[in-house]
Amino acid sequence: MDKLNVESIAKAVVENAVEIIKKTTPLVAKFVRISFECLLEIAAPLISTAKNWIQTAPLSYTIVIGFVLILLLLPRCGGGGGTGKTMKAPGRNNVRILRSSFERSPKSYFRSLRPKKA
Q1: In this predicted model, what pLDDT tens digit does every residue of 89-118 receive, in sequence order?
Q2: How many alpha carbons lie under 13 Å from residue 42 in its C-beta half-sphere?
Q3: What keywords are assigned to this protein (predicted)?
Q4: Which of 1, 25, 63, 83 has the fewest CB within 10 Å, making it most exposed?
Q5: Residue 50 CA to chain centroid, in angstroms?
Q6: Model pTM score
């Protein structure tokens, strides 16, 4: 292929892509607008119901629910002091290990990296 042929093919591809975008953009915009309108119609009653329930719920329920949510979310947020310092695992790519377990027995760590003999 000569340079002129490659350039003409590239130009044709770009022109076709531009035409496709011009034709589909109004459809995509309409789809997004309708989707958001439907979402707002569905979400508005749910939000107002939740807001009313929260306003009328007894304080004891609110405290219990808040405490349960904190207990459930705390481990996912890295709370509770963590598991200790980590380090990049020697001999492995993109792997982190606990520094304390490596320092306890580096010999056993490197032994576990070797393939098992049959």
Answers
A1: 888 888 888 888 888 888 888 888 877 776
A2: 6
A3: Membrane, Transmembrane, Transmembrane helix
A4: 1
A5: 26
A6: 0.30
Q: What stretch of H or E contains 96?
A: strand 96-98
Q: Is 87 helix (H, G, I), strand (E, B) or coil?
A: strand
* Side-chain half-sphere CA neighbours of 82 within 13 A: 6
Instruction: Catalogue the E-assigned strands of 17-92.
Output: 86-88
Among the listed residues 70, 91, 92, 93, the one whose alpha carbon sits nearest the alpha carbon of residue 80: 70
Q: CA 56 from chain center: how many Å?
A: 34
Measuring CA to CA, which residue among 85, 90, 96 is closest to residue 113?
Answer: 90
Helix (H, G, I), strand (E, B) or coil at 98: strand
Q: Longest C-alpha distance within the chain, in Å?
A: 79
CA–CA dist 72, 49 (Å, integer): 24
Q: How far apart are the first and last CA of the chain?
A: 55
